[in-house]
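testing teh design pipeline on a random one, pls ignore if ur not involved
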């Protein structure tokens, strides 16, 4: 008889540090919370009396709203802090901001920051639990978890699943977290994009690299399409939008020519329609982009719940 896995971590800082069993524990917990979200009154009391702060130093719509909704569905009190309207504008450091927030007796801080390692730094600086909602081009653990949850929901397995991630791999925290999660769960991961947007030695993470969209599409069960992150690029990394669309943009014609008929289409958002993804593909019956958003609330409920029980 297998020993039951229990959650012991105080923080969720990245997928790299999680085991396969811990990832599956989160996904199983999220399944239960998704059932809660489908009730007439989608609210339960596990985090009643807890206070959760969202500290976002970068713009966000889906992730921030999803975390705040997840906390409210668990009956926690929430406080939202945006860098643009905080003491960051007066020169206050991240450490001082976080410690001042913690002095108000909060239980958990969810942080998004443009600097890789910001969440790890914060976890060393405060006693509250810390959740990484995206740190630079490093990791975005809950996005990878909700992507994995969606894949399992649609396809029922991870072992032997062929997942292709296409786009700006070098600047994508989503790509890194997905590679860590999927390879630990037994899936085969292929990354595809311009050579100028491919990290050096990414194969060491367990991913196969190709620069040919045809090769990325052939045999893929899941296609996870990424946005070109111009805000993180110090200089242009491809000749122009038209050239990118021609080589790596996903449209119905390419899918019909090279991909399986039932390929699952994913995108973490926001979508640059007509660039990395055409309108007809984004809204296709095989697109699970809105399912990802729905599942994000359930997965983040699971993360907040599991972190709260270790306090």
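output:
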């Amino acid at each position: 008889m297998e020993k039951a896995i229990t959650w012991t971590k105080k923080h969720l800082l990245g997928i790299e540090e999680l085991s396969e069993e811990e990832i599956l524990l989160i996904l199983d917990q999220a399944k239960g919370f998704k059932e809660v979200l489908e009730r007439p009154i989608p609210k339960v009391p596990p985090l009643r009396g807890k206070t959760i702060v969202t500290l976002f130093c970068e713009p966000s719509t889906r992730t921030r709203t999803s975390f705040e909704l997840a906390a409210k569905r668990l009956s926690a009190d929430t406080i939202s802090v945006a860098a643009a309207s905080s003491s960051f504008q007066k020169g206050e450091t991240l450490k001082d901001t976080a410690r001042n927030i913690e002095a108000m007796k909060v239980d958990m801080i969810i942080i998004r920051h443009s600097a890789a390692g910001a969440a790890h730094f914060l976890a060393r600086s405060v006693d509250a639990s810390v959740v990484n909602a995206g740190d630079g081009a490093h990791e975005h653990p809950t996005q990878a978890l909700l992507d994995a949850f969606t894949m399992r929901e649609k396809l029922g397995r991870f072992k032997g699943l062929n997942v292709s991630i296409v786009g700006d791999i070098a600047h994508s925290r989503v790509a890194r977290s997905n590679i860590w999660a999927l390879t630990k769960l037994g899936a085969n991961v292929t990354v595809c994009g311009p050579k100028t947007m491919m990290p050096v030695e990414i194969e060491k993470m367990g991913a196969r690299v190709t620069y040919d969209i045809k090769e990325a599409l052939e045999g893929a069960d899941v296609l996870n399409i990424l946005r070109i992150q111009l805000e993180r690029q110090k200089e242009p990394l491809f000749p122009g939008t038209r050239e990118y669309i021609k080589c790596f943009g996903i449209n119905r014609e390419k899918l019909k020519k090279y991909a399986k008929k039932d390929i699952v289409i994913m995108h973490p958002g926001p979508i640059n329609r007509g660039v990395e993804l055409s309108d007809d593909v984004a809204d296709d019956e095989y697109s699970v982009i809105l399912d990802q958003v729905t599942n994000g609330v359930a997965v983040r409920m699971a993360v907040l719940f599991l972190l709260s029980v270790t306090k």
